[in-house]
Amino acid sequence: xxxxxxxxxxRSICELLEISFRKEGHxxxxxxxxxxxKRKLSAQVFxxxxxxxxxxxxxxxxxxxxxxxxxxxxxxxxITGVPTIDTAIEAVNFGADRYVIKGDRLLDELRPAVQSVTxxxxxxxxxxxxxxxxxxxxxxxHMIGTSPKMRTIFELIQNIAPQSSRVLITxxxxxxxxxxxxxxxxxxxxxxxxxxxxNCGAFPETLLESELFGYMKGAxxxxxxxxxxxxxxxxxxxxxxxxxxxxxxTMQVKLYRVxxxxxxxxIGSTEESDVDVxxxxxxxxxxxxxxxxxxxxxxxxxxxxxxxxxxxxxxxRREDIPLLAREFLGRxxxxxxxxxxxxxxxxxxxxxxxxxxxxxxxxxxxxxxxVALESGHRVSAETLPERIRTHAQELVPQLTQNxxxxxxxxxxxxxxxxIAKLERSYLLAALERSGGVRTRAAELLRMxxxxxxxxxxxxxx
Length: 461
Hints:
This protein is α/β, with parallel strands linked by helices. 48% of the residues lie in helices and 15% in strands. 33% of the residues are buried.
């Protein structure tokens, strides 16, 4: 519903319109004259202004001019009991969106105009929802994974999505934190309302404040009009705050207050407005360490992390790599209009044993590059970046020989980790040579089929 400002020096008109439109679910503010309306317009951003033309201190056309200068997106409806052609022309010239005649049928005339404006606002929200839904259906925001860790996360998303509790998503860069936030939003009752994102690390402190809370005309140099903040833009929906760990302590205090009170005050304003927003935050930092070192407020952490979700790095869910790689392959083959329909076993083996420091995002970029470079129908090992091709060789440390036999490299070696990687590589190599037949792969490794199944499960093969 719309946030409306009704301006009229006749108290009975104000009360009539307030009662009628509040019953329809709109948020209503009142002003009894033009100067009071100007103060409200300087302090808040309204969806609709309904103003009388003839008022003692300032006529409605002058108020219209002020509104269009300070808040161009606000819909302005003029009402008058003394209609003239000149007034109507002047109203249209200065940008009035509707012109309604006062009288016994005022509500009957005004209600369709407000409904039309409200419908425009709803269509904007629906358009955003449809764009998000299209991205989801085409796979751009589709989450993929069959590993136990990802299945647990999917179940958690389904359980918490219908709630309005705040969520803090942690994990390395590239693990898909925004995808999780979108999935929570799209499976909630807020799905048809806005999903607004901001990267808190991309803005300096002063600019971040104006982005989040908005500002009024004249609040600072360059503030030439009223502007909604992202909290107001996300009203009724979800605000995803990425890289929250990069926010300054001063901004953390201001954010804590908004989360605690559910109100925002734009820069340069003396008035607060209520906001109904579900906040989902994300960070790739160790927040507990940041708190211990005084860079993140503990009280804000507890406000944000009502429900914590940790996304595992790709190297901890290697069984999802083939699924993700094939998903990206299909997407990029289609967008590039290339008939690359599969990944050769050797290339897939290299993808599976690589550690992916850039996580899913790095895998996506790697497959996109491979599809772009591939001249045949299958992605081959030769089209993968050199760092991935050489990684498998580097799994075996270069041991040196001396008179007494084998010695460790100077930097030492993590024996358990090295053996685990080696065992997994042999499992993949045996499966590749056997064409995926597990019994034959077990024979190649001189082990029983039961032992092979044990190691396959252990290493997610």
